[in-house]
Structure formats: structure tokens, C-alpha cells
Write a structure and sequence with these properties.
Strand 12 and strand 13 form a beta hairpin. By secondary structure, the chain is mainly β. It has a single domain, classed as Jelly Rolls (Sandwich), CATH 2.60.120. Strands 8-9-10-12-11 form a 5-stranded mixed β-barrel.
Length: about 210
């Protein structure tokens, strides 16, 4: 099983640092929390697709969107009371709650890396090898074909391997618990890698909240 790389071996880390330091937050600091919950991009860098079409920083996002980043792109965006930061070469598919355009029921990370902070309410997160049930929390995930890296940054989740979804691990923390889940269903301990507290603070700020640590 291949484990996630640490920052000094992470191809996206340099672009991530440039991304955070580039000042590309679209109106951040001018956006009130009540306005920041709209389904829209807050940071936009490179080539990004929404539902298979080339996006711009003004493209609207809703709770049923499919979002794809290329190898040279990364982005942060808000859907309802949830905020996300996508790494390069990533793809995520959202499923809405009923007919809502802002309430998410399911998030499927098809490939790549995604940092997420969620408002209250039950949601299901799915990768190639893991399923996670949440009720308002912060998480980072990397999905590969045969393995998943999952970090519960804070909050509480029910974690299970896809080969045995009826057997769950209950995780709860205020500051980062990492796991590796392989396609055979083995769940191993892992450290915190490829995401930062600074990024979490930024994402929570987009939806008018603060991190709990």
C-alpha cells in the first residue's frame, strides 16, 4: 500500500504554498460571512472544469456539481455552509440533499486531494476504498486507486472500509487523527500530511466560522 507523501516529496505542495500566498482569494476580506455561503469559487488557479465544462472564477457551483482540477490548477470554493480546497489533478462529485442547490448529502472524491470543512448535518464521504459518515467536521482526504489517506482534522466521524461498510471505527479529535485505508480493508494509523492548520483557518473563515483548536 502506498502511503501519502510528506510535504518535501509532495508535487502539489509548492503550488499550494504559492496558491495560499498569491492573494487570489476572490474578494476575501470584502465578503461578509452571510454572503460567503453562496455556491461559488473563492480561490481560482489554473484550468478547472465544472460538470465537464471549462470554468471561470465567476462560475456558479451547486450541491450536484462535478469539479475537476488539472495538473496545474487548484481551487477553494463554498457550497452552502461547507468550504473546500482541491489539490491539482483531483476530481470530486457532490450529490445534493433532495432538490437543494446548497445542501450536500454525499461527496465522492474520485481522485486526488480535498480539504473540507462542513457545517452541521449528516453527510457521507466516499473514496475508492473508504466511506465516512460525518456531522459537521473538518477532514482531509487523498483518494488513489488502491488506497485512501484520511485525516480527521477535528470533529467526529464513522470510518469504514468499502469492503466491509458494516464495520466502522468511531473517530473523534480536536486536532488531527490520520488513517490509511487500503482496498483489502486494512485501516492503519497515519500522521498529518499534505494539509495545514492555516488552510483550515482560511476555509472556516470563508463560511464565517473558526477552527476549534
Amino acid at each position: 500500500m502506498s502511503a501519502p507523501h510528506h510535504d518535501n516529496h509532495c508535487p502539489s505542495c509548492q503550488s499550494r504554498r504559492q496558491f495560499l500566498g498569491s492573494g487570489l482569494i476572490l474578494g476575501l476580506g470584502l465578503i461578509l460571512p452571510s454572503l460567503s455561503v453562496a455556491g461559488s469559487f473563492k480561490q481560482f488557479n489554473g484550468d478547472i472544469l465544472v460538470n465537464g465544462r471549462q470554468a471561470t472564477s465567476r462560475t456558479r457551483i451547486h450541491a450536484g456539481s462535478l469539479i475537476t482540477t488539472s495538473a496545474n490548477s487548484s481551487t477553494a470554493f463554498v457550497i452552502g455552509n461547507n468550504a473546500f480546497m482541491m489539490r491539482p489533478s483531483s476530481q470530486v462529485k457532490f450529490t445534493p440533499l433532495g432538490n437543494s442547490r446548497s445542501s450536500i448529502s454525499t461527496l465522492r472524491l474520485i481522485t486526488g486531494g480535498l480539504l473540507s470543512v462542513f457545517g452541521p448535518g449528516p453527510k457521507k464521504l466516499i473514496t475508492n476504498t473508504a466511506t465516512i459518515g460525518i456531522r459537521g467536521t473538518g477532514v482531509y482526504m487523498e483518494s488513489q486507486e488502491a488506497s485512501t489517506y484520511f485525516c480527521l482534522c477535528y470533529g467526529k466521524v464513522d470510518l469504514s472500509a468499502n469492503v466491509n461498510v458494516d464495520k466502522t471505527q468511531e473517530l473523534e479529535t480536536k486536532h488531527h487523527v490520520g488513517k490509511n485505508i487500503n482496498k483489502e480493508g486494512l485501516i492503519d494509523q497515519a500522521g498529518m500530511t499534505n494539509h495545514t492548520d492555516e488552510e483550515l483557518v482560511m476555509l472556516e473563515g470563508l463560511v464565517g466560522r473558526k477552527v476549534p483548536f
